[in-house]
Amino acid sequence: MQQEHMTNKDKSVLDACCGSRMMWFDKTDSRAVFGDQRSEVLTVTDNSRGNVSGQRTLRIEPDTLMDFRAMPFDDGAFKLVAFDPPHLIHAGPRSWLAAKYGKLSENWRDDLRAGFAECFRVLAPDGVLVFKWNETQVKVRDVLALTPHKPLFGQVSGRSGMTHWLVFMKPSDVLCEAA
User: Fold this and answer.
1) Please, which pLDDT band fits residue 101 given cuts at 50, 70 and 90?
2) What does 22-43 look like in DSSP terms, one character per residue?
């Protein structure tokens, strides 16, 4: 499927897999383009943390419907890209985790390799990529093997210490082509 490339002169930030925008302090930040392949409102069973109703509504409402493997933006269009792709291989079709985070395909290595290539393609020279990964089912080292770029630094977080926040900077002298 061929897509027209879009320019975003008013936007300097891209969230390539925004989901429900969980990590954003301002879920409507005017500097950002929120993209995702899903657009849906889901009500799921959730009895965690004292949720009395036993239900939770998840709103996935991107600005742009898109696939992170083939983004409809010009090369070098953004100063900052947030890349928080699905990280689950095994999750039930009606599970809260699958609804909240999405699920990787059987070809997850190819998908993530293409996603990294696209994120670097749409980054401006010296642009910053913030990558978030939870290694509950796939180790972060296996994911980092899918891109030739090395992170500058990162932080491990979460109750189990399995969520990795990594920061990359696109080299100013290297063109990044889509996979």
Assistant:
1) confident
2) TT-SSTT-TTEEEEES--EEEE
> Is-contact 163 157, C-beta < 8 A?
yes
pTM for this entry? 0.86
Q: 155-174: per-residue pLDDT in tens? A: 999 888 889 999 999 998 76
